[in-house]
């Protein structure tokens, strides 16, 4: 396991790169499908990473609290050839077992992760209704899988977005396993 911190590629105000990816519902999803929302949260994640596993309850809480106003989208960009536990079929199983109510998409070519500059899992990006980046970073302040969160950073920032408040600190790095890139 390679531990990485998220890096800045997209900057505050940058427009979310579009995508068309297959979801675990066997339908194609594009960024345009979420235009009716007041915001979009794109989280690069996977099935096997202990840092993602530690955030399952937090991910479900984000969907439960904000899913009707802010689209929550999980994207798995890991190479499932070397990591079969991140395969599309296991994504479906994981979503069912963990009770994911948000869209969970597969980025088989890894093109979308590269466009966003995603480095680790989880690596969340929060966009406003104009698809402009307002926050890139951690879900909460529990930075190790066994840590207990005392500040729910993403919930605070999602609420600020809905309330029309400025998010002062637009980048607070997430920490997690590296995205498992395909060998070219």
Structural notes for this entry:
The chain has 184 residues and is an alpha/beta fold. It has a single domain, classed as Glutaredoxin (3-Layer(aba) Sandwich), CATH 3.40.30.10. Helices cover 23% and strands 25% of the residues. The strands form 2 sheets. The protein has an 8-stranded mixed β-sheet with strand order 3-2-6-5-4-8-9-10, covered by helices on one side. A 3-stranded antiparallel β-sheet has the order 1-11-7. Strand 2 and strand 3 form a beta hairpin. The longest helix is centred in the N-terminal third of the chain and has 11 residues. The two termini are 20 Å apart.
Task: Provide a compact summary of the structure.
The chain has 5 helices and 11 strands. It is α/β, with parallel strands linked by helices and 184 residues long.
Task: Give the topology, please.
Blueprint: E1 3-5, E2 20-23, E3 28-30, E4 39-44, H1 50-53, H2 56-66, E5 70-76, H3 88-98, E6 103-106, H4 111-116, E7 120-121, E8 123-128, E9 133-137, H5 153-163, E10 171-172, E11 175-178
Parallel strand pairs: 4-5, 5-6, 9-10
Antiparallel strand pairs: 1-11, 2-3, 2-6, 4-8, 7-11, 8-9
